[in-house]
Specification:
The complex is a heterodimer.
Chain A: H1 2-7, E1 12-17, H2 23-35, E2 40-45, H3 51-56, E3 66-71, E4 75-81, H4 84-96, H5 100-107, H6 110-117, H7 119-135, E5 137-138, E6 141-142, E7 146-150, H8 154-161, H9 163-168, H10 175-187, E8 192-198, H11 202-217, E9 222-230, H12 242-251, H13 258-286, E10 292-296, H14 304-316
Helix pairs in contact in A: 2-14, 4-7, 7-10, 8-11, 12-13
Chain B: H1 26-31, E1 37-41, H2 48-61, E2 66-71, H3 76-81, E3 88-93, E4 104-109, H4 112-123, H5 126-134, H6 136-144, H7 148-163, E5 168-172, H8 181-193, H9 196-207, H10 214-231, H11 233-247, H12 250-265, E6 269-275, H13 279-294, E7 299-307, H14 317-330, H15 334-363, E8 369-373, H16 382-392
Parallel strand pairs in B: 1-5, 1-6, 2-4, 2-5, 6-7, 7-8
Antiparallel strand pairs in B: 3-4
Helix pairs in contact in B: 2-16, 4-7, 5-11, 7-8, 7-12, 8-12, 9-10, 10-11, 13-15, 14-15
Classes of the chains: A alpha/beta, B alpha/beta.
GO molecular function, one term (chain B): ATP hydrolysis activity
Domain ArsA/GET3 Anion-transporting ATPase-like (chain B): 36-308
Organism (chain B): Paractinoplanes atraurantiacus
């Protein structure tokens, strides 16, 4: 366990990545992995996508922390879909004891208004809720050993996490300001870490590099770059001759007609082109100096067994 | 596992005709002078911008149409390939294209903030506009409001259409959380801008603090007090200032959004759903298709990007893998073993992609579709776009 803590030292893990890179799966796998050995973790989503529910094939998640998976060794993962309106009501209730008045506010659309007028305000509420769960204590113990946030994608992550700057434009004093300052401090402390999920494809890698630069400029600590869906090299030779393929096919008792041989040669050539591109991209990511974690492609898609496999791979990394 | 074993599925793994019902005729669409707008929509990361650019290029080169592509957030290298180096609300002619058929390709990147500024300037006096621009709420909203990008994309589309300078306008939609945002966000923004809440904030100023609806006044008072408590008085002052300044423009926002919405319902428009063969992207495309049907918007078809295919028809995945294992065990012909594994993976991938694609085509058998074969490397030059365009058509 000590080893695991040193490998994933933060308590709040923010997982971002370009859309389509599998950040929700990686976030879920991380929450599962960190729950091993009798721990309790919380997996949070904030974009109203119900991605966690789809991944675990459950009913849409309410605004409540519910157990979504049991982990061998007595650990468990809870999940929470933060809704900005609910978060605002909870916040108002916590600080101002509004109760029924809060519901009245919702009726006239005030909540909708307040959370849409300023996206910065909305993000303070969302990140504020994540902070609350991360720092919450129960009976003198931490409520969660780790919190994993399935965060907005790379294109929006800087703005989302840079809550102070966004709200400072609007609220110069008052409780929202205090709240956003405390969230900003948490996100810049060693307690939290942002991980960027990417595929070895041009656009996701470019966005990863952009996001890393942006977060560094904001002094928000970046943990690891997670390469998702990687495959072991099947062929390493630089060149494939048809004669060689034909010989091999004959040896295996397979058809050796021209169409088959040419077709296979083309597939190998495309594969090598792809591999070369992937190596270039991997080198670009290595240059950031951040640790890279490689997760295997799951040939059967992401199911329960697949998530467990990813969780194990993350914990080994 | 003998080499001669013929599994029942042999051959079917590379049969693509089963994926789609009717094949989408992109060339037919682009050649039709009655089609003036093509909207490419779909989830983020499915290649919408590339598809939009490839379609624009083909319309110009093959069909000789004077075409403009409105991109929202193109990848840097793709933008550069079209000669776009910065956000710029002016269409720029793309160089290096074949103009033999009399076509032209122009491209522009949406500058959301500048478009918003232009809308404000058009609807109010210079003095009022200056006040609005200085307000911190306007600054926050015009650059970050969720939905502003969608609203401004629609606004820009409306402007391009009414200028009537183009044979064809190809629109890439913003990289939204959901493809539906493109349709919903403008209405949400205009509802917000001329909404009840803003009226309430304005009400005391307008009626000298007295309102016919005491209930509204009561809840407004509560609202206002709460906002003051939570956000502070300065913020409320800024907000009221913003609201008052925008007051004169209320009708304008909604009217413009409504007008563009009507253009989208018109038969001069063709919606192309763009998806990659992944579960989420296809589900998103299905939501969007349902919605387009419900809104009576002209859905032309589905573009399935990045579909893999294998030209080798006689080698099923399982057989290839078994043969690769045999070759490895014999310790020779490792290259062929690798080639067979590459082939087996490719066949499995095509099968998986076809299953995913079928979830859409089964649900919408009447929607024509076209598959675009995955390219080994990403597209970021005009030649690459031309290739994609040819695959599409």
């Amino acid at each position: 366990m000590g080893e695991r803590v040193s490998r994933w030292p933060a308590r709040l893990h923010v997982v971002t990545g370009k859309g389509g890179t599998g950040k929700t799966s990686v976030a879920a796998a991380l929450a599962l992995g960190l729950a091993a050995g009798g721990k309790r973790t919380l997996l949070v989503e904030v974009e109203g996508r119900q991605g966690i529910a789809q991944l675990f094939e459950t009913e849409p998640l309410p605004y409540k922390e519910l157990r979504i998976a049991k982990v061998a060794g007595g650990g468990e993962v809870r999940a929470l879909a933060v809704d900005p309106e609910e978060a605002l009501l909870e916040y108002l209730d916590m600080f101002y004891h509004l109760g029924a008045a809060g519901r009245a506010l919702r009726k006239v659309g005030a909540i909708d208004f307040a959370t849409t007028i300023a996206p910065g305000l909305r993000d303070v509420l969302l990140t504020g809720k994540v902070k609350e769960a991360t720092t919450r204590s129960q009976d003198g113990k931490r409520a969660y050993d780790a919190v994993v946030l399935d965060a907005p994608p790379t294109g929006r992550i800087g703005r989302f996490l840079n809550v102070t700057a966004e709200t400072a434009k609007l609220a110069k004093v008052g409780p929202i300001k205090t709240q956003s300052d405390s969230v900003a401090a948490l996100l810049r402390s060693p307690i939290s870490s942002v991980h960027v999920v990417t595929l070895l494809e041009e656009m996701p890698v470019q966005e990863t590099l952009d996001a890393v630069a942006e977060l560094k400029a904001l002094r928000i600590p970046v943990g690891r770059i997670i390469l998702n869906a990687t495959r072991p090299a099947l062929v390493t030779a630089g060149r494939v001759t048809k004669a060689e393929l034909k010989r091999g096919l004959a040896e295996a008792g397979l058809p050796t007609d021209a169409a088959t041989v040419t077709g296979l040669a083309t597939e190998v050539k495309d594969y090598l082109t792809r591999q070369e591109l992937e190596e270039t991209l991997r080198a670009e990511l290595t240059e950031t100096g951040l640790p890279l974690v490689e997760l295997p492609l799951l040939p059967r898609g992401v199911d329960q067994a697949g998530l467990d496999e990813l969780a194990a791979a993350l914990m080994r990394a | 596992m003998g080499a001669g074993t013929q599994s029942p599925s042999a051959g079917s793994s590379t049969d693509y005709s089963g994926v789609v019902g009717e094949v989408l005729d992109v060339d037919g669409l682009l050649a039709d002078p009655a089609i003036r707008i093509v909207v490419c929509c779909g989830a983020g990361g499915v290649g919408k911008t590339t598809t939009a650019a490839a379609i624009g290029l083909r319309a110009a080169e093959v069909h000789g149409r004077r075409t403009v592509v409105l991109t929202i957030d193109p990848a840097r290298r793709l933008a550069q390939s079209m000669g776009l180096s910065e956000l710029d609300n002016t269409p720029r002619q793309v160089k290096g294209i074949d103009g033999e058929n009399g076509g032209e390709l122009h491209a522009m990147m949406l500058d959301m903030k500048r478009t918003f500024d232009e809308v404000v300037q058009q609807h109010t006096t210079p003095q009022r506009a200056a006040e609005i621009f200085a307000n911190p709420f306007y600054q926050a909203m015009s650059s970050t409001f969720a939905g502003t990008q969608e609203y401004m994309a629609m606004e820009k589309l409306g402007q391009l259409r009414s200028a009537d300078e183009w044979d064809l306008i190809v629109v890439d939609t913003p990289p939204s959380r959901s493809a539906l945002d493109f349709l919903d966000a403008p209405a949400r923004l205009s509802r917000f801008l001329d909404g009840r809440m803003l009226r309430m904030l304005l009400a005391p100023a307008r009626s000298g603090g007295r309102s016919m609806f005491s209930l509204v006044t009561a809840s407004f008072g509560l609202f206002s007090r709460t906002v003051q408590k939570v956000l502070g008085a300065q913020l409320l002052t800024d907000l009221s200032g913003f609201v008052a300044a925008l007051d004169s423009m209320f009708g304008g926002f909604r009217q413009r959004a409504d007008e563009t919405y009507r253009i989208l319902q018109d038969p001069q428009t063709a919606f192309l759903l763009v998806a990659a063969p992944e579960r989420d992207a296809v589900r998103e495309a299905a939501y969007f298709a349902e919605r387009l049907v419900a809104e009576r918007m002209p859905l032309a078809g589905l573009v399935l990007n990045r579909m893999h295919r294998s030209e080798v028809t006689g080698l099923p995945a399982e057989e290839s893998e078994a043969a690769a294992d045999e070759l490895d065990a014999a310790g020779e012909n490792q290259l062929t073993a690798g080639a067979l594994r590459i082939h087996a993976n490719l066949v499995r991938q095509t099968e998986r992609e076809q299953r995913v694609a079928a979830t859409f085509t089964d649900a919408f058998p009447a929607v024509p579709a076209v598959s675009v074969t995955a390219q080994p490397a990403d597209v970021h030059d005009v030649d690459g776009l031309r290739t994609i365009g040819a695959l599409l058509a």
